[in-house]
C-alpha cells in the first residue's frame, strides 16, 4: 500500500514537473505589441501614453537623476536660461550651467532634454508604424480605421512638436521616423536644420486639415497651424536665410489657426489658473494636468509650487498650492519685472514677504517686508520678486487641489491665440506681405487691450518694431517655454543683451554664440558617433 | 525532522531578522535498494524588520552634524528637524537619521515551503545504468507593511505613511532527469562514466498591486503601483563522458544545449561543448612509489559556457506597460453631458529583438601536486578566456529604443590569469597541528571589441553608476570593463588639487570632455588569500586573511559632498561636508576629477576563531566552546568606509559589521 502511495505521489509530481516545461514565457501584468494594437482602445492608450509623457514622469527617461519631465526640463532651458525667470536651486539641482548658459556635453539637463525629445519621437513612431500599414489597418472596420487614423495624425503632430524642439536646440540631429527600426546597434540618419525644417513643415501642413477643430487636451487643427507658424517664424534661424515666402507661410498658418474660431480670454490670469481647461476660447492646445487623474509632480505642479518662496504666510491664497510649502524654485529676474509699464495686468509679481500678524474680523492681517528686486546674491532666496502668473486657484479664487498629495490642477497651454496674433504681427514686420502692417498692429493692440483692460496700452504703427515685439513677447509669454527661442530669433540671446546673472555673473555677461545650441549628451557618442562630430563642429 | 530558530539584528538600528524553520525527510527504499526515493520538505517563517538604511545612511552622511538628535520638544516625535517656520522645510532634503529609523516601521512576514523528490533507480537488467530524477518546488509568499506616524518629518506634509503590500510570491520549479552509466572495464584498463540528462528550471515572481496611505490608513496618497509578474525558464540537454585509462589518463567531454526564455525563439538556444584532459603523472612508472612526490597531475581543458544572468526576462519582446492607478490617466474625450473622460495609458519598454547568450570560451592549463603524503600540496593554473556578446547595460542611440540605456550584447572581452594554491601542514603531532593555506590570483581583463564600433575610432561607452548624474566609468577597446574615465587632476606645489585644473591631454588648448582618460579600474590585479590554524591539544586558533591589490574605487561620497556649494543649497538647511573638502577646498563639485579615484587595495582579516573542544563530558554530551570575531581589521589607504566596493563606485555604502560571537556547541 505504502509503495503504491509513494509511487503515485512521485509519479504525479514528476509528471507535473515534466509536462510544464516550456521556454515560452510572456508577461502577464503588461502587454506586448501583439495584443496592444488589436483595438482602437489599444491605440488610444498608446497615444495617451505619449501625451502623459509630456507632463508626468516617464519611467524610461525620468528614472535617471535630474531628468524630471519633458515640460519641466523644457522650461529650465526656455525660461531659466533667459531674462524671464531665475532658477534658485543651482547646485542642489545641478542647474548652474543651465541658468548661466555654460553647459557642456556632460550636463545632466542637456541630456534630459535630448532624451525626452527623442523618447516622444520614438513613442510616436511606434504608434504611426502600427497604424500606417494598409494590411495592419485592414483588420479593422471602416469606422475603427477612421478613429485609429485620427490617433495616428495626433501622434504625427506630437512628433512634429518634439522635433520642433530638436531643430531649435540642435544644429544637426538624429532623424528617425516610422520606417526606423527599434533595437541595438542601430545608427540613425543625421539631419541638418534645413532638412528638419522641411520635414516638420511638410508633416504639419499635411496633417493640419485632418485634425479635429476642437479636441480637449489633444492636438487640434489650430495647434498644427500654430506650430507651423512658430516654425516658419524662426525659419531664418533654421535655414540660414530670411525668405519672404516663409514669413508669408507663417501669416497663412496664423490665419488658418485663427479661423478655427478662437478669441482672446478677457482675464489674462485665468489662462494660467486651475480652471484653465475652460479657456478653450483662447487656448488652442493644452497638455491636460488634473489632480485626480493626471497627477504631475513636474509640469504645472512644479511651476505653481516652484513659484512659492519662503516667508509668505498663507501662500495658498495666492498660488492655490495647498499644503505644498515653499518649493523655492523660480523667481523673477529684474529684467522681466522692468519690462512692464504700470497698468499692465500681465505683470504678475509680488514684491514683498508677509507674516500673519493678527486678525481683523474674519480677515487675517499681515505685516509685509519689501524684497529686493535685484537678486543680490544668487544663493539668497530672499531676494528677487515672486512670480504669481501660474496658480492652482480655481475661478472662484480657491485652491483647486491638495498639491502635496495630488499635484496641481492647472493645464499647461502649449499654444494659444495671443501667441498666434503676435506671430502674425512679427511675420509682417519681418517682411511678410500676406497681411498689412495695420492688420499686424491691430492684432498687437488686441493683445495689449486685454493686458491693460482698456486701449491705454495701445501702440502706434511707428512703435511696432522688432525690438518692441521682442519685449512684448516677453511680457505676454514669459514662463511658457518659448522665451529662449524668441531671444535667439531676435538675435539677443548669447550677446548684445544681458540680464542679471546671465553667465553666472551678477550684472550679466555675453556668452559664446555656441550656447544658442545644446550639446548632444556625450553618452550618445559611442552609439551614434556622428553626434560627437555635431558637437565638435559647434565647439562643444 | 528538525526545528530551528534564528534571530539577528542588523548593523543599522531597527534592522532585524527572525526565522523559524522545520523540515521533514523520508527516504524509503524499494526492490532491495534498486529504487530509492528521497522526499524532503522544509518550511520556514521569516519575520523581518527592515530599517530605512539607505535613507538613514545618506542623511547621516550629508546632514548637519552639529544639530542635536533630539529637539527637546514633542514635535516630530521629539527628533530635531530642519524647519521652515513651524513645518519641516520642503526643500531641505535632509531629515534626522535617527527619526528615519525609529519612526519608520517596515515589517515583512514571509512563509516559505521547499519540497524535493529524488528518485534513484538502478536498472534491474543493468545495475551499472542508473536513472536519477529530481523534482523540486520552492514557494515563498510574503506580506509586508510600512508605517510611519503623521508626526514624522519625512512624511509630515502628506500626514504619515501606511503602505501594506503583498502577497508577493516567488516560485521556483526544477525538474532534472539523467541516465548514468558507470563501468569499470578491466580488459581495456578503463573506467567510463557516461551521463545524459535533461534539466528544466522555472522561476516566477509576482508582486501584487497596491497603494500607499496616510497614517490614518484610509486616505490614499496617490502612489499606487501595478502588479508585476516575472517568469523565466531554462532548459538544458546535456551529455558527459568521463573516461579514465589506466588511472593515468583522464578525458572528460561534455556537450550541452541550453535554452533560455529570455531570448527570442530563433536566438534562444546555445550549444556549449567542453573537453578536458588530465595526465596523472604520479601514476607513471617513473614516479610511482616515490616517497616524496605523491601527486602530480597535468590538466588542460577547453570549454564554452553561456551566460544569461542579470538581464530582464522579456528583453526581446516589445512590452507595453499599463499606467498605474486612477491618477496616471489622460483625457480621452468628453461625454454627452460635458464631463471629461480619462483613461489609463500604455508606455513601451525597450527591447532588443536579437538579444542572445553571452558566451565564454576558456582555455585552462594546470598542474596539481602533492608532496610527502600531501603535507604540501597545491595547484597552479593558467587560463585565458574570450567572451563574446558580453551582456551589459549601455546607452541606446536616441530614437532607436524606448529607454536611455539598454541591456544588450555589447562586444567581446579577453581575460587571462594565473591561480596558485598551496596547502601545507608543517607540524602535525599529537599535541600540535599547524595548517597553512594560501592562494594567489593574477588577472587581466580587456575589452577587445564593442559591437557598435566596427571601424572608426569611437568615444568610450559610458557605463556604471552615475554620480550626480555623471558617468565616471566607461567601456572602451583595450580597457578593463568599468575602468574609470576621468580628468587628470593638476595639483599645486603643496600637493593640493587645483579646482577645475586638468591636464589638456588632447593638447587642443582647452579642457573639454575629450581630455578624460582611463585611470585604473575596480578590478584587482592580484588577489591573495591566506588562512592558517594552530592547534595545541584541544585548543585551536585559526584565522583567514584576504588581500586585493590594484583595485581602485571612486569615492562618490567624497566627490558629491566635498565641495563648498554642497554645504548650502539656497535654503534654511546646512549640509555636512565630506572631510575630503579639507584636502581640496573645492567650491563646486569636481565629479570628473581623478582625485576621487582612490587606490582601494586592502588587506582584511575576515575572521579570527579561538576554539576549545572539551570532548565528551561524562560520556553524555560533547562540549565545544568558541569565540569568533568577523571582519577583524582592514588595512587600506582608501579614505571611504570600506575599500571593497562592488563595481567601484562608493555611494551610500551599507557598512559591513564587525561581529563578535561566542559559540557553545553541544553534541549528544
Topology diagram in text:
The complex is a heterodimer of chains A (540) and B (668).
Chain A: H1 2-19, E1 31-32, H2 33-36, H3 40-55, H4 59-62, H5 70-78, E2 85-87, H6 96-99, H7 108-132, H8 134-137, H9 142-169, E3 172-175, E4 189-192, H10 193-207, H11 221-233, H12 235-239, H13 244-258, E5 283-287, H14 299-307, H15 316-319, E6 321-322, E7 330-332, H16 334-337, E8 349-350, E9 352-360, E10 363-370, E11 386-387, E12 401-402, E13 412-416, H17 417-429, H18 437-452, H19 466-477, H20 483-489, H21 530-538
Parallel strand pairs in A: 6-12
Antiparallel strand pairs in A: 2-7, 3-4, 5-13, 8-11, 9-10
Helix pairs in contact in A: 3-7, 3-9, 5-7, 7-9, 9-10, 10-11, 11-13, 11-17, 13-17, 17-18, 17-19
Chain B: E1 2-9, E2 16-26, E3 29-30, E4 35-50, H1 53-62, E5 83-84, E6 87-88, H2 97-102, E7 105-122, E8 129-148, E9 161-185, E10 190-207, E11 228-245, E12 249-260, E13 269-280, E14 293-307, E15 319-322, E16 329-334, E17 340-344, E18 346-348, E19 358-371, E20 376-395, E21 405-428, E22 432-450, E23 461-463, E24 473-475, E25 483-486, E26 489-491, E27 497-502, E28 517-518, E29 526-536, E30 539-549, E31 552-555, H3 556-560, H4 580-584, E32 597-599, E33 602-617, E34 621-636, E35 649-650, E36 659-667
Parallel strand pairs in B: 31-35
Antiparallel strand pairs in B: 1-2, 2-4, 3-4, 4-7, 5-6, 7-8, 8-9, 9-10, 10-11, 11-12, 12-13, 13-14, 14-19, 15-18, 16-17, 19-20, 20-21, 21-22, 22-29, 23-24, 24-25, 25-28, 26-27, 29-30, 30-33, 31-32, 33-34, 34-36
Write structural notes for this entry.
The complex is a heterodimer of chains A (540) and B (668). Chain A has helices at 2-19, 33-36, 40-55, 59-62, 70-78, 96-99, 108-132, 134-137, 142-169, 193-207, 221-233, 235-239, 244-258, 299-307, 316-319, 334-337, 417-429, 437-452, 466-477, 483-489, 530-538; strands spanning 31-32, 85-87, 172-175, 189-192, 283-287, 321-322, 330-332, 349-350, 352-360, 363-370, 386-387, 401-402, 412-416. By secondary structure, chain A is mainly alpha-helical. Chain A has a domain at 299-410. In chain A, helix 11 (221-233) packs parallel to helix 17 (417-429). Chain A is globular. The termini of chain A are far apart. In chain B, the strands form 7 sheets. Chain B has a 21-stranded antiparallel β-sheet that branches. At the A-B interface, helix 1, strand 1, helix 3, helix 4 and helix 7 of A face strand 8, strand 9, strand 11, strand 15 and strand 16 of B.
Amino acid at each position: 500500500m505504502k509503495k503504491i502511495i509513494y509511487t503515485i505521489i512521485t509519479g504525479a509530481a514528476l509528471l507535473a514537473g515534466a509536462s510544464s516545461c516550456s521556454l515560452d514565457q510572456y508577461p502577464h501584468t503588461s502587454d506586448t505589441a501583439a495584443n496592444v494594437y488589436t483595438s482602437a482602445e489599444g491605440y488610444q492608450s498608446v497615444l495617451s501614453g505619449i501625451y502623459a509623457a509630456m507632463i508626468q514622469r516617464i519611467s524610461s527617461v525620468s528614472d535617471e537623476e535630474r531628468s524630471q519631465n519633458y515640460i519641466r526640463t523644457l522650461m529650465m532651458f526656455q525660461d531659466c536660461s533667459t531674462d524671464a525667470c531665475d532658477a534658485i536651486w543651482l547646485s542642489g539641482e545641478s542647474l548652474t550651467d543651465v541658468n548661466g548658459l555654460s553647459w557642456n556635453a556632460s550636463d545632466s539637463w542637456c541630456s534630459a532634454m535630448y532624451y525626452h525629445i527623442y523618447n516622444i519621437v520614438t513613442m510616436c513612431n511606434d504608434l504611426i508604424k502600427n497604424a500606417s500599414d494598409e494590411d495592419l489597418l485592414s483588420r479593422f472596420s471602416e469606422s475603427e480605421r477612421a478613429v485609429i487614423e485620427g490617433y495616428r495624425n495626433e501622434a504625427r503632430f506630437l512628433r512634429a512638436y518634439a522635433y520642433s524642439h530638436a531643430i531649435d536646440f540642435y544644429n544637426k540631429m538624429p532623424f528617425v521616423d516610422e520606417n526606423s527600426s527599434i533595437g541595438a546597434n542601430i545608427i540613425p540618419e543625421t539631419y541638418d536644420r534645413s532638412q528638419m525644417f522641411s520635414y516638420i513643415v511638410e508633416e504639419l501642413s499635411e496633417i493640419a486639415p485632418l485634425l479635429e477643430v476642437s479636441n480637449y487636451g489633444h492636438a487640434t487643427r489650430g495647434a498644427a497651424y500654430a506650430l507651423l507658424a512658430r516654425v516658419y517664424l524662426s525659419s531664418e534661424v533654421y535655414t540660414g536665410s530670411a525668405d519672404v515666402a516663409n514669413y508669408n507661410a507663417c501669416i497663412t498658418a496664423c490665419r488658418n489657426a485663427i479661423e478655427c474660431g478662437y478669441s482672446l480670454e478677457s482675464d489674462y490670469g485665468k489662462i494660467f489658473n486651475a480652471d484653465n481647461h475652460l479657456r478653450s476660447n483662447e487656448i488652442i492646445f493644452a497638455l491636460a494636468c488634473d489632480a485626480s487623474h493626471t497627477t504631475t509632480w513636474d509640469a504645472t505642479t512644479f511651476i505653481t509650487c516652484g513659484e512659492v518662496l519662503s516667508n509668505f504666510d498663507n501662500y495658498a491664497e495666492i498660488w492655490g498650492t495647498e499644503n505644498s510649502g515653499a518649493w523655492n524654485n523660480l523667481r523673477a529676474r529684474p529684467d522681466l519685472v522692468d519690462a512692464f509699464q504700470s497698468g499692465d495686468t500681465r505683470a504678475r509679481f509680488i514684491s514683498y514677504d508677509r507674516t500673519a500678524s493678527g486678525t481683523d474680523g474674519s480677515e487675517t492681517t499681515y505685516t509685509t517686508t519689501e524684497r529686493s528686486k535685484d537678486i543680490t546674491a544668487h544663493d539668497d532666496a530672499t531676494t528677487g520678486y515672486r512670480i504669481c502668473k501660474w496658480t492652482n486657484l480655481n475661478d472662484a479664487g480657491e485652491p483647486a487641489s491638495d498639491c502635496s498629495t495630488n499635484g496641481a490642477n492647472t493645464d499647461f497651454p502649449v499654444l494659444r491665440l495671443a501667441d498666434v496674433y503676435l506671430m502674425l504681427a512679427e511675420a509682417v514686420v519681418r517682411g511678410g506681405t500676406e497681411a498689412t502692417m495695420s492688420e499686424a498692429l491691430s492684432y498687437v493692440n488686441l493683445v495689449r487691450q486685454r493686458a491693460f483692460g482698456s486701449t491705454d496700452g495701445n501702440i502706434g504703427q511707428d512703435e511696432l518694431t522688432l525690438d518692441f515685439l521682442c519685449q512684448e513677447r516677453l511680457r505676454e509669454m514669459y514662463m511658457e517655454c518659448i522665451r529662449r527661442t524668441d531671444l535667439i530669433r531676435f538675435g539677443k540671446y548669447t550677446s548684445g543683451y544681458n540680464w542679471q546673472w546671465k553667465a553666472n555673473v551678477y550684472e550679466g555677461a555675453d556668452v559664446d554664440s555656441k550656447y544658442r545650441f545644446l550639446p548632444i549628451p556625450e553618452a550618445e557618442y559611442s552609439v551614434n558617433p556622428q553626434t560627437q562630430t555635431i558637437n565638435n563642429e559647434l565647439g562643444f | 525532522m528538525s526545528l530551528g530558530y534564528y534571530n539577528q539584528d542588523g548593523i543599522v538600528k531597527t534592522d532585524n531578522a527572525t526565522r523559524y524553520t522545520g523540515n521533514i525527510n523520508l527516504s524509503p527504499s524499494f526492490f532491495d535498494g534498486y529504487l530509492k526515493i528521497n522526499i524532503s520538505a522544509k518550511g520556514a517563517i521569516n519575520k523581518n524588520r527592515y530599517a530605512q538604511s539607505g535613507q538613514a545612511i545618506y542623511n547621516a552622511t550629508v546632514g548637519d552634524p552639529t544639530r542635536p538628535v533630539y529637539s527637546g520638544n514633542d514635535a516630530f516625535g521629539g527628533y530635531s528637524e530642519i524647519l521652515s517656520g513651524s513645518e519641516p522645510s520642503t526643500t531641505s532634503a535632509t531629515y534626522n537619521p535617527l527619526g528615519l529609523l525609529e519612526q519608520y516601521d517596515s515589517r515583512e512576514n514571509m512563509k516559505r515551503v521547499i519540497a524535493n523528490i529524488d528518485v534513484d533507480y538502478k536498472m534491474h537488467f543493468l545495475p551499472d545504468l542508473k536513472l536519477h530524477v529530481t523534482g523540486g518546488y520552492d514557494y515563498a509568499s510574503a506580506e509586508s507593511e510600512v508605517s510611519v506616524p503623521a508626526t514624522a518629518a519625512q512624511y509630515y506634509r502628506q500626514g504619515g505613511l501606511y503602505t501594506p503590500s503583498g502577497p508577493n510570491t516567488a516560485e521556483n520549479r526544477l525538474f532534472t532527469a539523467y541516465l548514468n552509466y558507470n563501468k569499470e572495464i578491466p580488459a581495456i584498463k578503463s573506467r567510463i562514466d557516461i551521463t545524459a540528462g535533461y534539466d528544466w528550471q522555472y522561476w516566477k515572481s509576482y508582486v501584487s498591486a497596491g497603494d500607499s496611505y496616510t497614517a490614518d490608513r484610509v486616505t490614499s496618497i496617490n502612489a499606487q503601483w501595478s502588479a508585476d509578474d516575472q517568469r523565466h525558464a531554462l532548459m538544458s540537454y546535456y551529455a558527459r563522458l568521463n573516461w579514465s585509462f589506466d588511472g593515468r589518463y583522464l578525458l572528460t567531454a561534455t556537450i550541452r544545449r541550453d535554452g533560455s526564455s529570455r531570448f527570442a525563439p530563433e536566438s534562444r538556444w546555445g550549444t556549449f561543448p567542453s573537453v578536458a584532459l588530465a595526465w596523472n603523472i604520479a601514476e607513471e612508472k617513473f614516479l610511482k612509489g616515490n616517497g616524496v612526490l605523491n601527486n602530480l597531475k597535468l590538466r588542460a581543458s577547453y570549454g564554452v559556457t553561456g551566460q544569461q544572468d542579470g538581464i530582464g526576462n522579456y528583453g526581446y519582446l516589445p512590452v507595453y506597460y499599463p499606467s498605474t492607478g486612477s491618477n496616471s490617466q489622460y483625457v480621452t474625450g468628453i461625454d454627452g453631458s460635458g464631463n471629461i473622460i480619462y483613461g489609463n495609458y500604455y508606455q513601451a519598454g525597450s527591447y532588443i529583438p536579437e538579444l542572445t547568450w553571452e558566451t565564454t570560451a576558456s582555455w585552462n592549463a594546470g598542474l596539481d601536486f602533492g608532496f610527502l603524503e600531501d603535507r604540501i600540496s597545491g595547484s597552479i593554473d593558467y587560463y585565458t578566456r574570450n567572451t563574446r556578446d558580453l551582456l551589459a547595460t549601455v546607452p541606446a542611440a536616441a530614437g532607436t529604443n524606448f529607454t536611455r540605456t539598454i541591456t544588450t550584447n555589447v562586444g567581446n572581452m579577453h581575460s587571462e590569469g594565473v591561480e596558485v594554491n598551496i596547502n601545507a601542514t608543517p607540524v602535525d603531532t599529537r599535541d600540535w597541528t599547524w595548517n597553512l593555506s594560501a592562494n594567489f590570483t593574477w588577472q587581466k581583463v580587456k575589452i577587445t571589441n564593442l559591437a557598435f564600433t566596427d571601424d572608426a575610432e569611437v568615444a568610450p561607452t559610458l557605463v556604471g553608476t552615475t554620480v550626480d548624474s555623471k558617468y565616471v566609468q566607461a567601456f572602451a577597446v583595450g580597457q578593463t570593463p568599468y575602468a574609470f574615465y576621468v580628468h587628470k587632476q593638476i595639483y599645486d606645489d603643496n600637493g593640493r588639487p587645483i579646482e577645475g585644473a586638468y591636464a589638456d591631454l588632447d593638447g587642443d588648448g582647452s579642457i573639454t570632455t575629450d581630455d578624460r582618460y582611463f585611470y585604473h579600474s575596480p578590478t584587482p590585479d592580484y588577489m591573495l588569500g591566506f588562512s592558517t590554524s594552530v592547534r595545541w591539544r584541544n585548543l585551536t586558533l585559526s584565522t583567514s586573511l584576504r588581500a586585493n591589490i590594484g583595485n581602485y574605487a571612486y569615492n562618490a561620497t567624497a566627490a558629491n559632498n566635498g565641495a563648498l556649494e554642497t554645504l548650502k543649497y539656497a535654503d534654511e538647511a546646512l549640509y555636512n561636508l565630506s572631510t575630503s573638502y579639507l584636502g581640496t577646498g573645492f567650491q563646486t563639485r569636481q565629479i570628473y576629477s581623478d582625485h576621487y579615484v582612490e587606490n582601494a587595495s586592502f588587506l582584511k582579516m575576515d575572521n579570527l576563531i579561538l576554539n576549545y573542544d572539551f570532548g565528551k563530558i561524562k560520556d553524555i554530551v560533547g562540549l565545544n566552546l568558541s569565540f569568533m570575531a568577523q571582519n577583524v581589521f582592514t588595512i587600506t589607504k582608501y579614505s571611504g568606509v570600506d575599500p571593497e566596493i562592488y563595481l567601484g563606485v562608493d555611494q551610500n555604502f551599507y557598512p559591513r559589521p564587525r561581529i563578535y560571537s561566542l559559540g557553545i556547541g553541544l553534541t549528544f
